[in-house]
Amino acid sequence: MSAPQADFRVANHGTIFVLTPKTEAAKTFIASRMPDDVQRWGRDGYVVEHRYIADILVDLHENDFSFMEGV
Length: 71
Description:
By secondary structure, the chain is an alpha+beta fold. The chain has helices at 24-33, 50-62, and strands at 8-12, 16-21, 40-41, 45-49, 67-69.
């Protein structure tokens, strides 16, 4: 039996993080939270400055989303 998939992947690239939604619910949720001019990373990733990532992760946790670290 495989482990459940996390809703988001969070990749630390030093001064930026890349937040990638992995489920449809996560994609819908984060799209409603990000500004229109957010910088994108690849097809699904969102670039987040290090000073904002903690607040975003708290918001995800408070809304019952799971996340994993990785690249």
